[in-house]
Amino acid sequence: xxxxxRIALLSxxxxxxxxxxxxxxxxxxxxxxxxxxxxxxxxxxxxEAMKTIARIRPRLLVINGxxxxxxxxxxxxxxxxxxxxxxxxxxxxxxxxxxxIALDLGAQGDPVVALGRLLEIARHDLAGHVVARELIxxxxxxxxxxxxxxxxxxxxxxxxxxxxxxxxxxxxxxxxGISHGITAVAVILRGLLGLKAGFLxxxxxxxxxxxxxxxxxxxxxxLLAVTTLEKLLLGTGIRTEGTGRLKFLAIEQRPASMxxxxxxxLSRTLAKGKLSGVHVEQADEIRIEGDRSSVILxxxxxxxxxxxxxxxxxxxxxxxxRLAA
Length: 325
Known about the structure:
single chain, 325 residues, alpha+beta, Rossmann fold, Tumour Suppressor Smad4, 6-stranded antiparallel β-sheet, 29% strand, globular
């Protein structure tokens, strides 16, 4: 008798974390026939992967890659309709460079150990581990019919900093912790001390942000984030009233505002309307427009323009499996 598939594992071998760990994951899957392992090398292959995975009806879909791989998979789950109304819960292995989504779901440490824990969960009752998560639908202009789906968007100075780290610091080959430390120092030198130099991240471009029901804010922002994650940066979160809405945070590009915002994040006291220069909102829709200003949704870069603003809205919630943090 053929063993039922408990887990479908979707891996991206080109994800940074997989370069060294994928052989161990392959070996683990070879030892456990109730895991179906499908590998893709680029996002364009994820649609075909989902078609195949849908045919075997796994109890749990596990994504092994960085946040960009997770975003591409969530987009295909939302737009492809491969599973009909029986989409399996999704889990994310700790991998990639940033792992914000994996961190939010309590997946840390060795991905093979995490996969083993997920297999044990899939062999028993999933109910105690399943949590609902809202998703962000991003459209470039109102006419876009196929949204990109994700869980964390960074814009303004935050996007510039992420691109600076990706393009200037990661190529140095340093450990992630050191790379992120260097980037943080560069941000402090530019934002808090006002230093300007070619080796520092650029000055944020002006943006106009419209948040439903709460009007518009304009200016230069050291940090702009929209998320449905429970945790933001540095393990912090935003105090929310109720659930099911997009969480919006913007900190103005002024030293005093940055200090207030950073302190509130570290002390976990971010709340709506509490600090000058720090904007915290909850919304169903958000529009971002600027002069070719970058925004990054779970690793993929988009451009907010005056004639083609970025539109963010709530997408259909999805079930995830959360491991204990």
